[in-house]
Amino acid sequence: MIHSLQKGEEPAFRNLVLLYQHRVYNTVLGFLQEPADAEDMTQEVFIRIFQKIGTFKGEAALATWIYRIAVTTALDALRKARRQKRGGFLAAFRGRDEPTEPPDFFHPGVAAEQKEDSVLLFKAIRRLPENQQAAFLLQKLEGLSQPEIATVLKTTVSAVESLLVRAKAGLRNQLKDIHSMNQR
Amino acid sequence: MKQEQDIDRILNSLDGAQRAEASPYLYSKIRSRLDDRPVVVSTALAWRLAVVVAVVAALNLYTLAALPAQKQTQNETTAAAVATDYSIGLPAAY
Predict the structure, then answer these.
(1) Confidence tier at A160 by pLDDT (50, 70, 90)
(2) Nearest-CA residue of chain A relative to B15?
(3) Which of B6, B14, B15 would best serve as a mutation to test chain A binding (most A beta carbons within 10 A)?
(4) For residue B3, which residues of chain A lie inside 8 Å, CB to CB?
(5) Chain A nearest CA to B50, separation (Å)
(6) Greater confidence, A183 or B20?
(7) A107-184 has CATH 1.20.1250.40 classification
(8) How many other CB atoms are there within 10 angstroms of residue B14's CB atom?
(9) Which residues contact residue A39 at a Cβ distance below 8 angstroms, ignoring those fewer than 6 apart?
(10) For residue B41, what are the contacts with CB-CB under 8 A and spacing of at least 6?
(11) What is the pLDDT of residues A19-71, one digit of tens each?
(12) How many CB atoms neighbour CB B43 within 10 A?
């Protein structure tokens, strides 16, 4: 398949999209928390894959390489959105516009009885540092093991373990604050 | 205690979540975006093309520069041949 992809064969690329589209979309959606943006970024991920497949040397599994591109693309999009938000905040400060809080995100794959809880969790995830977000989302949404996450993030298993511990501690602190506010 | 239980429940709220699915038209949209993109020429290829264009332009300029002198020489040769053929000499001074 990789050889056919590198030769630019159309059926091979189509098969690749069909095989990985939901994994890529689900990963990107976890970061962006907005279905339309996630759809757009999923297309961007596959365009990048199409353009870069010639540089794939097979050092990692194809799936790992694709997850890496998906994470990088999603984080790039988040950074761009943050820059635009900062611009919007400055405009609001000057009295031009109202800064808006992102809407609640309901992941379509979460069971109905867990939806409300997952909205709070996604809000807290959004405030984590990028590498902690990546490790946590790859584990929770895609079910990747720690060694797999380490390969995607180009780091060690112990570093991933540490990222996950810090992510959970950070989320717990944020959720404590939210819980205390709701109790008042 | 209640707080800890609530937090644990929220932290585990993604457990067992199904994978979100992309649009069934995803591939068509990607294909369309790829077809709409301008063809990207690599820097190396662009340099090679630039060198070829420069060489062709230089050859053209050289040929154009050499042309009038060559034409003049050719005209003089033809005139001399015609003069010889028709026995036309330079007008004699009387």
Answers:
(1) very high
(2) A140
(3) B14
(4) 176, 179-180, 183
(5) 24
(6) B20
(7) no
(8) 22
(9) A25, B22, B23, B26
(10) B49
(11) 999 999 999 999 999 999 999 999 999 999 999 998 888 778 999 999 999 99
(12) 7
Q: How far is A82 from chain B (nearest CA, A)?
A: 24
The domain ranges of chain A are 1-103, 107-184
Query: In 10 A of CB A18, how many CB atoms?
Result: 12
CA distances from A71 to A96, A143, A154 (A): 34, 15, 12
Mean pLDDT (whole number) for B26-32 = 95
Residue numbers of B between 6 and 45 with CB closer than 8 Å to A: 6-7, 9-11, 13-23, 26-27, 29-30, 33-34, 37, 40
Q: How far apart are CA A122 and CA B10, in angstroms?
A: 10
Which of the residue ranges A5-14, A97-106, A112-121, A168-177 would you say has the lowest mean pLDDT?
A97-106
Q: Say which CATH architecture domain A1-103 belongs to.
A: Orthogonal Bundle (1.10)
**What's the gap in Å between the CA of A24 and the closest CA on chain B?**
8
